[in-house]
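Supplementary Methods, section 5.1.

A reviewer requested that the exact input to the structure prediction be made available. We therefore reproduce it here, unchanged from the version used in the analyses.
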Amino acid sequence: MTQRPAVLIMQRHLAPLTGFLESAYDVYRFWEGPPVEAAHDIRALVVAGEFELDKALIESLPNLIHIACFTAGYDRIDVDWCRARGLIVTHAPGVNHEDVADHALGLIIAHRRGLVSGDRMLRAGEWKIETRVLTPSLNGQRVGIVGLGAIGQAVARRAEAMRMSVAWWGPREKTSPWPRADSVVALARDSDILVICCKVDATNAGLISEPVLQALGPYGLLVNVSRGQIVDEPALIAALKSGTLGGAALDVFTEEPTDPALWADAPNTVLTPHTGGATTESVQGMLMLLLQNLSAVLGGEPPRTPVTD
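The structure derived from this sequence is encoded token-by-token as follows.
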């Protein structure tokens, strides 16, 4: 084995981490080819939590001990499978939830107040002085939040500050200043805006299905800043095209990057390329936790922020 521990960065968009890691580690990048020659040296994988682990690769690395998730979310990482193999899994909690909540509110305002469509109209020379576009006020809008974790609570606080009422649903009871609906369908039925803030797992993929979209209705807005897999995407697109659903403001998609052709004829949408938590400050915070976790685990110390559930 080499003198320095080796780490393997799995996803291409994490390539900028190389410069921060190579002063302490030998760094390999999976997209440049599986590092067969370094299989015995690699001690940690650096991953993004929205990507499924390559289990065959992991089993080919005999000295691997650490799955270092750069992101807060780790929903595509099979934590139980990792633990059964003695692998420590870490992530970056409590770093970007406020920024994601800001983005969710921005999507609500952009869609409800017609910011994107107004920009397009002006640039196309279609603004006529005799025509005034009317949009609904946010005052009194009913916001339903699916998943009242750190992001959901941050969205709820912002919604109240914008004079909207808040309710929520999640599979488990918790103490909250906001009422919990009996079901996600009931929440959608009683909401003008439904904001998805829950993590995806084996039990809730496709949770936002056709009945939920129908309950939200032709004036309702679906906002997703969680994971695309929570939403039945074909049902969503069909509901938008038929008018069963009023609109959608999305930062996440089933497959990323999403195929723009899927959305070409889907009306009343505001779409952003999974940038909700991608602020300079949040990325710096995730980087610091990544470096601290790698240093601890590869140095034989307890991790700073292990995945605990």
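The chain has a mean pLDDT of 96. These observations are discussed further in the main text.
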